[in-house]
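#help-structures

NK: newbie question. if I give both the sequence and a SMILES, will the prediction place the ligand too? trying with NAP
OV: yes, paste both and it writes out the complex. here, I ran yours:
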Amino acid sequence: MNTNRFFVLFVSAWCAAALCTFVLLFFKTAPYGRHMKRDGGPTIKSRTGWVVMEAVSFFLMLYLYLTGNRRGDRTALVFLGMWLMHYAYRSFLFSPLKRGKEDRIPLVIVAASLLFNGVNAYLNGRYLFYLSPVYPIQWLAGIRFVSGAALFFAGFFINMHSDHILRGLRSAGEKTYRIPYGGLYRWVSCPNYLGEITEWIGWAVATWSLPGVAFAFWTLANLAPRSFSHHRWYRELFDDYPQERKALVPFLF
Ligand SMILES: NC(=O)c1ccc[n+]([C@@H]2O[C@H](COP(=O)([O-])OP(=O)(O)OC[C@H]3O[C@@H](n4cnc5c(N)ncnc54)[C@H](OP(=O)(O)O)[C@@H]3O)[C@@H](O)[C@H]2O)c1
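OV: that's the protein plus ligand as structure tokens.
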């Protein structure tokens, strides 16, 4: 079997795994943050865990670019820049900026995220910097790139802004949860997840690639069920939780 065929088969299997995860997470919420369980096994400091599990995506993508055969290609450089921008934020800013009492994260979550991030970075980097047909510079002016990049940057902004609102809810050393207001919290309980999903759908469109679709699908599989768990949790905890607010998509669900 040649490399391209094997690659397509592997990505298809990876998408099937995302579908299973999507279904599973509706029945069992990933046990970290507010859904953490006491009997969830060994844990490490949450801030350390986040850096470790997200930085793998940053460094692996950079490594694949530097060792690939698209170095100096301007379209490849733009894709690399978009990816690194997201993961520089998630690995090196999101975690140190996290507010409140230092908490813990189960090692099993860190391990699962390392696998998820490692495989997604590998598939996207391997495709974009080794296997794909060369993207000409005109790609950057085409409808797929322009609309995809618009979604990507809009999603990135929504994600960062929503994370920023959550940070403002706590002072140092606190572990309290409060009702978030402002930005897209006016309409949904988890705009940070909505932003992240939008971002990776934008990436899939901008790169027009199967690994891009797989990553967007995995992000949806992780975050859509979790947004329903968060939404239920808010409604059970706060009597005055805004009734009109949906879980993930304004006015719909
Ligand atoms: N691509 C993917 O598949 C994927 C998967 C997972 C996460 N992510 C991204 O990673 C980021 C973090 O994810 P997450 O699941 O940890 O998000 P989250 O549950 O919304 O929590 C984000 C941060 O805000 C705090 N927080 C949340 N709600 C709060 C409230 N009502 N009052 C006070 N503090 C509150 C949390 O504290 P606690 O930790 O104490 O709850 C945590 O520090 C998100 O931007 C998400 O999009 C992406």
